[in-house]
Design a protein that fits this description.
heterodimer; A: mainly alpha; MetI-like fold; two-stranded antiparallel sheet; 12 helices; 76% helix; globular; B: alpha/beta; Rossmann fold; six-stranded mixed β-sheet; four-stranded antiparallel β-sheet; 10 strands; 36% helix; 27% strand
């Protein structure tokens, strides 16, 4: 009896440990394959030059530039909006009010919507409805805003990353001790003065964490920008919000599926993947570190 | 007897359906120290917090009766809570400095009241810290974080922060309960100084402290005001048996 139990127990340890190791193995294999495939192409030159010869040679600078541009505009839209929403949810809405519960439900739902749906929404709402409407209203129907651009792609991406910002900021606001709010109120500060001068500065690291997580998500997602602004190839960098742009994730997709000679672009694909991974890993790691510090501080 | 600064009439407070204060009527004189004593949960802190309407922050609280500060009913609809709290300052049980420099902590109140002139702020900060007996300890590090101060220093800085708003009344909610004996002695000495210019109401768990610092003592039990009078009398010949039992440590 007991021997049988021992064997079952041992087996169970083996199965769980194997599953855990499998995950590590997947990551390691993924990284090794990418690094081996990309290291020959990866160079300073690669990061700073334009693609050449039908994207079979040259670098990925426009894609890096476009990605950075995208997440910048996205952050400018998502961070203030998400922060303000989080303030409303934590400071003003009563937990049980129907409005607060609907907002929370909407935020949760937004977080589970497949990213391609955001892309379609961006196309329908931002480009056709808002952009097209702006063209009709201000430009007499001349096409400028009613087509894919970095602005609409950024706003679409902002919608996708909004839940990340809201949740992070909410969490941070809740870590600001009640005693500090009371101290401020007892000194004759109004509620909004307390929020502005005590609660928000106290939530700085949470706002930062939320921003970084949103940026890292936005840098990696492709589906939302597929119809809303990403371009296959551009000879010049985007200079205006109504321009289209190149993007790292989209660039990988293009080279892997649309290239004239997929095998020839393989080293560039690996190297681009390396850059994208490096970017998102670094961002996520920074967010994790800031969050860990924040948690330690509140304990 | 000095003039009455705060007067409550039939003050009753509910947390939801639970009555926490039952019809409290008492007069607090100007420029004296009034202590509230009683076992945990007797309502003394809750009562203190009705005096600057800090209980407003708890949504389930319901209050009936009157609190008059200088004959003004502070629960009147026309009362501006912000002005009330400038006049009735508060020091909390746990020292609660902002995560800012010492200077910015003390300057916080004046700043929100629109004082931005550097020299004027500096003067207010210096005077407030001096009044709270902490100037000499911090004058060389005004721009360091207040979090680096010891617990006792933090609490005196919080008192300075309260003084910077120029209140007339200071409510203290067990201000020394988390401090060591030396820091406690400093706070008590400070209270003794401050009563010359301020009306002080202090909640304390420490009977000796009440006896040492206060002129008047109110004993609360289960949301009721059991006895209120001169501290000397309460601690030597209380009228109520209950008070005597609590003071002599037979329950509590």
């Amino acid at each position: 009896m007991s021997r049988k139990r021992d064997i079952t127990g041992g087996l169970f340890i083996g199965v769980t440990a194997f599953s855990a190791l499998l995950i590590i193995a997947v990551i390691v294999i993924l990284l090794v394959v990418i690094i081996i495939g990309g290291k020959g192409t990866f160079s300073w030159e690669f990061l700073t030059s334009f693609p050449q010869d039908g994207m079979m040679k040259g670098g990925i600078f426009p894609a890096i530039y476009g990605t950075v541009f995208l997440v910048l505009i996205m952050s400018i839209a998502a961070v203030p909006f998400g922060t303000i929403t989080a303030i409303y949810l934590t400071e003003y809405a009563s937990e049980k009010s129907i409005l607060a519960q609907s907002i929370r439900f909407a935020v949760r739902t937004l977080a589970t919507v497949p990213s391609i749906i955001f892309g379609l929404f961006g196309l329908g709402f931002f480009i056709k409805f808002v952009g097209g409407g702006m063209d009709n209203l201000f430009l007499g129907g001349q096409l400028k805003w009613g087509q894919p651009s970095i602005l609409w792609a950024s706003l679409t991406m902002a919608l996708l990353t909004l839940p990340v910002v809201i949740v992070s900021v909410e969490e941070a606001i809740r870590t600001v001790p009640r005693e500090m709010r009371e101290a401020s109120l007892a000194l004759g500060a109004t509620k909004w003065e307390t929020i502005l001068r005590i609660v928000l500065p106290g939530s700085r690291s949470g706002i930062m964490t939320g921003t970084i997580l949103a940026v890292s998500r936005g840098a990696g997602e492709v589906a939302p920008i597929l119809f809303t602004g990403a371009a296959y190839y551009l000879a010049t960098l985007p200079t205006s919000l109504s321009d289209q742009f190149m993007n790292l994730g989209y660039h990988i997709y293009i080279m892997a599926t649309q290239s004239a000679n997929v095998d020839k672009t393989l080293p560039i694909q690996f190297a681009t993947t390396m850059v994208l991974l490096l970017l998102t890993f670094t961002l996520n790691l920074t967010a994790v570190i800031i969050r860990a510090r924040l948690r330690r501080k509140t304990k | 007897m000095k003039e009455t600064k705060i007067k409550t009439r039939d003050l009753t407070l509910y947390y939801g359906a639970k009555m926490a204060l039952n019809s409290i009527s008492l007069d607090i004189p100007e420029n004296e120290v009034t202590a509230f004593i009683g076992p945990s949960g007797c309502g003394k802190s809750t009562f203190l917090r009705t005096l600057n309407r800090m209980n407003d922050l708890i949504p389930t609280v319901r209050i009936t009766g009157e609190v008059l500060v200088d004959t003004l009913n502070i629960y009147d609809k026309q009362i501006d809570v912000v002005n009330l709290r400038k006049k009735v300052g508060m020091v909390f049980q746990k020292s609660n400095p902002f995560t800012k420099s010492i200077f910015e902590n003390v300057a916080y109140g004046p700043r929100i009241n629109g004082i931005n002139h550097k020299g004027q702020l500096g003067e207010i900060v210096e005077n407030s810290l001096k009044k709270a007996f902490i100037w000499d300890e911090v004058k060389d590090r005004l721009h360091d974080s207040a979090m680096g101060l010891s617990g006792g220093q933090q609490q005196r800085m919080c008192i300075a922060r309260t003084l910077a708003v120029e209140p007339e009344i200071i409510l203290m909610d067990e201000p020394a309960s988390a401090l060591d004996p030396i820091s406690t002695a400093k706070i008590e000495e400070l209270i003794f100084e401050l009563k010359k210019n301020y009306t002080i109401v202090i909640v304390t768990h420490n009977m000796q402290q009440a006896a040492r610092v206060s002129d008047l003592t109110a004993f609360f039990y289960l949301g009721e005001l059991i006895e209120y009078g001169k501290t000397k009398k309460i601690f030597t010949t209380p009228d109520k048996k209950h008070t005597e039992e609590y003071i002599t440590g037979r329950f509590g």
